[in-house]
Amino acid sequence: MSEGIHVCEDVAAASKCLLQHSFAVFRVDGFTESKLNRSWKAGRDFLSHASQHNDKVEQFIEKYRYIKNGTLLGFNRPSSQKLLFRAQFVDCNSLEEQPWPNDFDSGELCQATKDLVPALHSILLQVHSKIREDIMSTYCDGEDECEQSEQSEHLRKKRRMSHSFDAYCPLDYFLYTNLQAGTNCSEHVDRGILICISLSSLVAGLEVMSRRDGKFYTPEKLAMFESLYKEYDSGASDLICILAGDQLLDSLNINDNMGILAIYPGIQACNHRVKQELAMARLSISYELRESANIKSHL
Ligand SMILES: [Fe+2]
């Protein structure tokens, strides 16, 4: 336990925590941890290569920045504090569609990302499914009552609908360079249904606001604390922070929004930011689960 937040060891605990706070710190299994680690290292190598071209970074960006269907892909510099490599998938097999740099040995980064995406996608789908289940159970104590409940009928209909989550969800590598003072990332909410962000075991940067008490928490402190007991620390931890996105409420298709928000304030999108002062450079990976229709309308 740290600062009132804890590590969720399973999907049920993550749903419970997220429904209250709008975020949950979740431990991935060993299989996913190895994929996360591999991607983290490949992302670090690529972005440190990019940051070494700091004097000609604009040239570097122009080379690797792509606009596809109105969406900015590839290597970007959103501010002077950070570098971003956005890798997206039309589907997991269409690698020729990817904006991978061709004069950097990006094979490892490409393969590692390709392996990681389905693992993160699956975790977020499971958490979303559990969130819906938990909300449904709020409306019906027993099956008989459920049958009579207009709300639960509404939710059942939604459940029967084929899930339209698209494989075309953004996976981003962020490098906060920590080279100069300034805002690393100001308060905002993310687009999507659920978002997961890898947690560094080296530097605490991410701050997430609880919708229950309005306070900001620093989940990377948990990862850093656990790393003290590890013989070998790669820099990436086996913890991710799962955040409610701005599409979560809609995705649950709930009628009485105000009623449900009083019970589950965490359904609202998670307000988060990155600390103004970091102890060192920080690399994070984020994956945003989005709904197909919304992906199209926001391209
Ligand atoms: Fe964000």
Can you give a write-up of this model?
The structure is a single chain. This protein has 299 residues and is an alpha+beta fold. It has a single domain (7-297), classed as B-lactam Antibiotic, Isopenicillin N Synthase, Chain (Jelly Rolls, Sandwich), CATH 2.60.120. It is built from 10 helices and 13 strands. The protein has a 9-stranded mixed beta sheet. Strand 3 and strand 4 (71-79) form a beta hairpin. Helix 1 crosses helix 4. The longest helix has 33 residues, at 107-139. It starts with 6 loop residues before the first strand and ends with a helix. Fe (ii) ion is lined by residues 188, 190, 272. InterPro entries: IPNS-like_sf.
Topology, pairings included?
Elements: E1 7-8, H1 11-21, E2 23-27, H2 30-51, H3 57-64, E3 65-68, E4 71-79, E5 82-87, H4 107-139, H5 143-148, H6 150-160, E6 171-176, E7 185-188, E8 194-200, E9 206-209, E10 216-217, H7 220-227, E11 236-244, H8 248-252, H9 257-263, E12 272-274, E13 282-289, H10 292-297
Helix pairs in contact: 1-4, 2-4
The structure holds fe (ii) ion.
Brief account:
The chain has helices spanning 11-21, 30-51, 57-64, 107-139, 143-148, 150-160, 220-227, 248-252, 257-263, 292-297, and strands at residues 7-8, 23-27, 65-68, 71-79, 82-87, 171-176, 185-188, 194-200, 206-209, 216-217, 236-244, 272-274, 282-289.
